Automatic annotation (TrEMBL):
Its main location: membrane. Pfam families: Competence (PF03772), Lactamase_B (PF00753). NCBIfam families: ComEC_N-term, ComEC_Rec2. SMART domains: Lactamase_B (SM00849). This is Competence protein ComEC. GO terms for cellular component: plasma membrane. CDD domains: ComA-like_MBL-fold. It is found in: Cell membrane. SUPFAM superfamilies: Metallo-hydrolase/oxidoreductase. Residues 519-729 form the Metallo-beta-lactamase domain.
């Protein structure tokens, strides 16, 4: 049965995918094709083993994914929870705990958040490495789903881990250390890992420390967000954090050392078996660590038992064990890239055997880039164009220089004191290497056209792509005419992928989307058949000064976290026009960062808004980039290609305040829309005086539903059918105000709110429109 574990492995993979995407019909077609190929083996042992493994994975996966129950009802305010050392995460002034609540009926995992009061409290939690028992008072909430289309779904992410609740802690009443039992080696190894990380952090600067922890312990959390983004754009993420190269290096080094000191091969393999399990628990058994540990474990175990299997057998056995242990691993990009790229190397590595070392690296990098492209596009909505080149250049450097160096530095850091001359010399010498690597990444990161924006790819499109990808490799592998005919058909799927992206962009309905940007406005307008994309306001955040200890390492601006990813998920790389209604940060704050990632042809704003110093600074920077800046006043028609809008306000040059907001009237489908920015009652009165016959169907409610806007006279005159309110969930301004809501309801206006319903959108064609839709359904 050598080499036949590929069949149970692939069936297990397809079953888990089908469990997570039960409506993806194409997956079931692939299952049928696979079963047909399985029957073609005509080997009863292989068929029996494959079906048995498939049934086990189906039962275990179904139970772990769909049979998630809770012991809580959501009304509890005081809980006793147990927290393991690796469940404690401190990020600035935010403490995140993953703990377990236990009763006679069982145990349930939940996530807890607590805002630290001062720096002393932060340092105390950072030093914590013991399991704890806490008594906490707070509020339980269901985790929230994605508030914008294609956004990260935190609720689903936690649900797949069996977590149903998050708690906001108001007070930690009691805290005591739980001493682990003598046999609790996992807890002791976890404590040892945390203490090792704390020691290394004290002895190395941030740059060296982040590389050491990433490449020795496999934890990339300490890498600065700026460098993570560059690695993603260059396409070297799979090599840097999830490759598992450090474990290969460690195994080779230990085995060489043991053999050199006279330990027999059999004993060294026994020691490595035990050592791998200890090391896996020590570093936390992440996705890539588990893969490499399991593959090496099964390899050494087979050698001890004097059994011989193909490399693919060890790989697929590790895959099956991982899926049984945590089926939700399959949703993790680390799992997808780690197992996927490794499988490609094992399946088709023989093709490069006759090639030189340079050609071999180029070809393998090419295969890895082709395989990872749709996965990266699915998660990040873009693919790196230079990944093959950078992987080829950096892989030897990582394997032969950086990984051995990091192991050496880790050993020195743990063995020598911070004042040791040896440590001081080693740190100074190594800093140059890390600095060189960072400078190199920064240089590459400034190259033009690093990525190609694809938008969010469907599961069907990705499946088609992989059919074409493997068809191409089969064509290279199988000289027989039959296989080449099949592979030729599959290669056509690659062209279908490219075609589907183009069809998605050029043959589509128009759409108006009120993006959920929290307490601000951002409205995306997509004209039918890719005739243009326009944005009214960008949203933005008002930043408040914080002490250094309060700043969170992974904090992102609204543009980086929400607006730009959403636009890229829609495949948008260019905006014809951005309208800024007025010079307040919650309406233009993301404009500058947006212009760095998305091409903007023109920015339209009310005359006089540039009197605001903050807005003027942004405009000057945009002007330096060559953007067209167009100040406007009322009683003009804005016309650009197929987009047309009447500018109704302001009538005169002002300073960019709420009552100077740009007011636009236009039509989408059969509905007349009015966008009023933050116009308040005084401005509304001026507008009605000028346009006493104005009637509309859809009103973007002014000033986020504040009581200073949407007067009774204004609503009665316009007679809108729909009212859209953009405001932040539980915002400190109490928007929308009850007075405004009552006024809208009394006028029989159908209200849609981003704070309750997430993003709101409507699809339309020139003479028709669909009903409004919302992202969140639990309003």
């Amino acid at each position: 049965m050598k080499g036949y574990l590929i069949f149970p492995g692939i069936l297990s993979l397809l079953i888990v995918v089908a469990l997570f995407y039960p409506n993806a019909i194409f997956i079931y077609l692939l299952l049928l094709l696979f079963l047909f190929r399985l029957g073609h083996t005509k080997c009863l042992k292989v068929i029996s083993l494959t079906i048995f493994c498939g049934l086990v994975v189906l039962l275990v996966g179904y139970f772990k994914i769909y049979h998630v129950s809770t012991l809580l009802n959501g009304t509890e305010t005081q809980l006793q929870v147990q927290v393991a050392p690796d469940g404690i995460k401190v990020n600035g002034n935010l403490l995140r705990l993953q703990g377990s609540y236990q009763t006679d009926k069982g145990k349930e995992t939940l996530i807890l958040f607590y805002t630290l009061a001062n720096e002393e409290e932060q340092k105390a939690w950072q030093k914590q490495s013991d399991p704890l028992q806490l008594e906490v008072i707070g509020t339980l909430e269901c985790p929230e789903g994605n508030r914008n289309r294609y956004q990260f779904n935190y609720q689903q992410y936690l649900k797949h881990q069996g977590i149903q609740w998050v708690m906001s802690i108001d007070q930690i009443k009691k805290q005591q250390v739980n001493q682990p039992n003598w046999w609790a080696f996992d807890v002791r190894l976890t404590k040892l890992r945390i203490q090792a990380i704390q020691t290394l952090e004290q002895k190395f600067n941030q740059r060296s420390f982040s590389y050491i922890v990433a490449l020795v312990i496999g934890n990339g959390d300490f890498i600065e967000p700026e460098y993570k983004e560059i690695q993603q754009q260059l396409g070297i993420v799979p090599l840097f954090v999830i490759s598992g190269l450090h474990i290969h290096f460690l195994c080779q080094f230990i085995e060489y050392f043991l053999l050199r000191i006279g330990v027999t091969k059999e004993k060294s393999q026994c020691l490595l078996l035990v050592g791998l399990l200890i090391y896996g628990q020590f570093v936390g058994f992440g996705v890539s660590v588990m893969r490499v540990v399991l593959i090496h474990f099964f390899t050494f175990l087979a050698a001890l038992l004097k059994q011989r299997f193909a490399s693919l057998d060890y790989f697929f056995l590790a895959l099956i064990v991982s899926l049984l242990y945590q089926p939700q691993f399959i949703l993790n990009i680390g799992f997808q890239l780690s197992y996927g790229v490794t499988a490609i190397f094992l399946l088709f590595g023989y093709l490069v055997q006759p090639l030189s070392s340079i050609k071999k690296n180029l070809f393998l990098s090419f295969l890895a880039s082709l395989f990872s492209a749709p996965i990266l596009a699915f998660h990040f909505f873009e693919i790196p164009l230079y990944s093959m080149l950078f992987n080829c250049l950096l892989l030897p450097f990582f394997e032969w220089v950086l990984i051995p160096l990091c192991f050496f530095l880790c050993l020195v850091g743990l063995c020598f004191s911070a004042t040791s001359l040896v440590l001081t010399l080693v740190v100074q010498l190594s800093n140059g290497i890390f600095l060189f690597l960072d400078d190199l990444l920064m240089f590459f990161g400034k190259l033009p056209y690093l990525t190609f924006v694809t938008g969010r790819l469907s599961i069907f499109t990705i499946s088609i792509y992989f059919c074409g990808f493997f068809g191409l490799l089969i064509y290279l592998y199988q000289p027989k005419k039959f296989y080449r005919s099949i592979s030729s058909i599959l290669v056509c799927c690659l062209f279908i992928l490219v075609g589907s992206i183009q069809i998605k962009n050029y043959f589509m309905a128009g759409e108006v989307m009120m993006i959920d940007v929290g307490q601000g406005d951002a409205i995306l307008i997509r004209l039918p058949n890719h005739q243009g994309d326009y944005l009214i306001d960008t949203g933005g955040q008002i930043s408040y000064e914080k002490a250094a200890w309060q700043i969170r390492s992974n904090e992102q601006s609204l543009a980086k976290k929400t607006l730009i990813p959403y636009l890229k998920s829609e495949g948008i790389t260019r905006l014809e026009t951005v309208f800024i209604t007025h010079a307040h940060l919650d309406h233009f704050g993301a404009l500058e960062e947006l212009s760095e990632e998305i091409q903007i042809d023109e920015v339209v704003f009310p005359k006089g808004s540039d009197k605001s110093s903050t807005f003027s600074t942004v405009l000057n920077k945009l002007d330096e980039k060559g953007l067209q800046l167009t100040p406007v006043l009322a009683e003009t028609t804005y016309q650009k290609q197929s987009f047309s809008a009447e500018i109704l306000f302001p009538f005169k040059v002002e300073t960019g305040g709420n009552n100077d907001s740009l007011v636009l009237q236009t039509t989408f489908g059969t509905l007349s829309w009015l966008f009023v920015g933050d116009l308040e009652k005084e401005g509304e009165a001026e507008l009605l005086k000028k346009y006493p016959q104005l009637k509309i169907d859809v009103l973007k409610i002014g000033h986020h539903g504040s009581k200073t806007s949407s007067s009774a006279a204004f609503i009665e005159q316009l007679q809108p059918t729909y009212g859209l309110i953009s405001c932040g969930k539980k915002n400190r301004f109490d928007h929308p105000h009850k007075i405004t809501l009552d006024q809208l309801l009394s006028s029989q206006v159908m209200i849609y709110r981003t704070d309750l319903q997430g993003a709101i959108y409507m699809k339309y064609m020139p003479n028709e429109h669909e009903p409004f839709q919302k992202i969140l359904t639990n309003d």
